[in-house]
Amino acid sequence: MDTVESNEEMYRQYKGQHATIDRRIQMLLKKSYLTEAEEREMKVLKKKKLYYKDLMESLVNSFQRKEKH
Fold it and tell me: From the CB of residue 52, how many other CB atoms can be counted at a distance below 10 Å?
């Protein structure tokens, strides 16, 4: 597997994780009340979602830099 394919696979994995986290966040947002544990979970999930978004953006930027060279 070459680097482009492995980077694309990593991107798909990150995107899948991001989507899974987003679905859980949406489920929690539908609740009228969150327990303390759910509030903590929401904070953690939002940080993880941002982490995966940053990873995806980093890969995209890496692709773009390689294409310019």
Answer: 19
Contact 11, 56 (CB under 8 A): yes
Q: What SS3 class is residue 28? A: helix
Stretches in the chain below the pLDDT threshold 50: none
**What is the rounded CA–CA span in Å between residue 64 and residue 58?**
10
Question: Which positions ≥6 away from 59 have C-beta within 8 Å?
Answer: 7, 10, 11, 14
Give the N- to C-terminal CA distance of the chain in Å, as an integer. Answer: 21
Q: Which two tokens stand for residue 17?
A: 């994780």
The domain total for the chain is 1
pLDDT value for 41:
98
Q: What residue numbers bound the domain in which 63 lies?
A: 3-68
Q: How far apart are CA 65 and CA 54, in angstroms?
A: 16
